[in-house]
Amino acid sequence: MSRTQTLPPQHQDRQPGRQEPMHPQPRTEDPAYKAAGKLQGKVALITGGDSGIGRAVAVAFAREGAEVAFVYLDEEHDAGQARAAIAAHGREALAMAGDVGDADFCRRAVDRVLERFGHLDILVNNAGEQHLRNRIEDISPDQLYRTFSTNFFGLFFLTQAAVPRLRPGAAIINTASVTAYLGSPSLLDYSASKGAVVAFTRSLALQLVSRGIRVNAVAPGPIWTPLIPSTFPAEEVSRFGADTPMGRPGQPEEVAPAYVFLASDDASYITGQVLHVNGGQVLNG
């Protein structure tokens, strides 16, 4: 392995990507993590919870005592693995297949959580997709709509459905991206959609603060998730994360504690903020 190679070259031809064929497997559960019951009695709904960051957050929440519901598109094997990981900590997850870009599905998902658990305390808008294009001329209207449908409209629709059901003390956590701050010449529409997530987070935090609901975001840097091999050519995957100060990609288990913090009462005086988990890239905001 060369000095700049961080992973074995690999590529998946199908989006969304699958976690099961990745090598090495993303680490979604840190065995050294010490839970402290920070989310005991809480109910969380997580989008993109079948794999990557979403699965790591779901497992961490379960370890902290939360009941967990998660949404995935159609990755049945990954969803089964996520359910098993959550069950290993004494929680039976509610898993729902569907497209977050569909407002009706978002309303049904929230209704199912309420029917199953009786209340909803934590919403994590994490589902995302990205498509590699090196020229703006190559981004089709369909791609632009699809990227924003998953990354922003879905976040908006699910939050819109959930907010009337949230109680004071609830938390909303959105997944932004380092690209919203640094930009990306080959992920133009993705970066723009994540910039919208940041602006939405700050604005909604101001709107909901009087209702006792906190709204924050996490902006991951290069994290080893199925999004990566399903987006980039194999050779580019092999150098993934090498340009960070830490010289490597992060693992989902290294991002999950930021979500636990923002969901818990430890963050009771924090709203409208973005936590940057990116291997040392210093950013403003």
From TrEMBL:
Residues 42-227 form the Ketoreductase domain. One of its GO terms (biological process) is bile acid metabolic process. Belongs to the short-chain dehydrogenases/reductases (SDR) family. InterPro entries: KR_dom, NAD(P)-bd_dom_sf, Sc_DH/Rdtase_CS, SDR_fam. Its EC number is 1.-.-.-. The lineage of its organism: Bacteria, Bacillati, Bacillota, Clostridia, Eubacteriales. The keyword ATP-binding does not apply. This is Putative NAD(P)-dependent dehydrogenase. It comes from the Bacteria. Residues 11-31 have a biased composition (Basic and acidic residues). Gene3D superfamilies: NAD(P)-binding Rossmann-like Domain. GO terms for molecular function: oxidoreductase activity, acting on CH-OH group of donors. Residues 1-31 are annotated as: Disordered. Keywords: Oxidoreductase. Transmembrane segments: none annotated. PANTHER family: NADPH-DEPENDENT ALDEHYDE REDUCTASE 1, CHLOROPLASTIC, NADPH-DEPENDENT ALDEHYDE REDUCTASE-LIKE PROTEIN, CHLOROPLASTIC-RELATED.
